[in-house]
Design brief:
The protein has helices at about 1-20, 25-60, 65-80, 85-95, 100-115. The chain is mainly α and about 120 residues long.
Length: about 120
Amino acid sequence: MKWLLFLYPWLELWSLIELGSQTSATTAMLWVLGAGVLGIALFRLAGRQTLVHLQQAQREGALSEQLLMGNVARLVAGVLLIVPGLISDALAVVVLIAPLRVLLAKLLVGGAVNAQYGHYQG
């Protein structure tokens, strides 16, 4: 797992260099800029929606976990889009698509449970 934290920035950099070499440096720069702007907008929108849902839940006395988790997923996707690189952008898309988000959560939780009990295969 430690090597993944070291390898991740290099993979992000490599993906951007590869995008620039396959298309142009301008395209790569526009991709990073566009994804960043989209990420900031998504983060702000999800933040506002989360506050509205929390205020509504406080008035009604019931918190909808599904709505809250959807907003949290949009916040995470916004952060991933702000991070420059194609890998983080692909992860943001996975987080935004509900069935893929559920599958990713099962994989991550299953891996954490297996690692806790010494059966991790990753």
